[in-house]
Amino acid sequence: MKYWLIVTMACFTGCSNEPAQLVTHTVEGRVVLGKTPIRDATVVLHPVTELSDEAIRPRALTDADGKFRLTTYKQHDGAPAGEYRVTIQKWTTDKPDEGPKNRLNPKLAVPETSGLTATIQDGENKLQDFKISK
Q: Contact 80/121 with Cβ under 8 angstroms?
């Protein structure tokens, strides 16, 4: 009984389900189709070496100029340093009674087929434009 109480108390004082937050670095970029900026596209970074299904996936939504600033924990805080595969999707609805559809090439929605990558380094990061095709 004493052993169970000691283990329980140790978990209450030292165990946490909250993962430790990684250091993030500011990241900005742009998404274009030809020379046309893509508005309202979701950009997601997928770590090349994922440690678990709960790996961090920094993300952003592009503005009218196709520009984005990544968010991991709080708005525009950036992403942890590392190598990433990048996915880009743009979900819209043509008719109110239909569900949204991804308007970009479906290959861009899968990390293994998008062909897009990013390397995040310590400090400020300005990524080259992600030039996509439909």
A: no
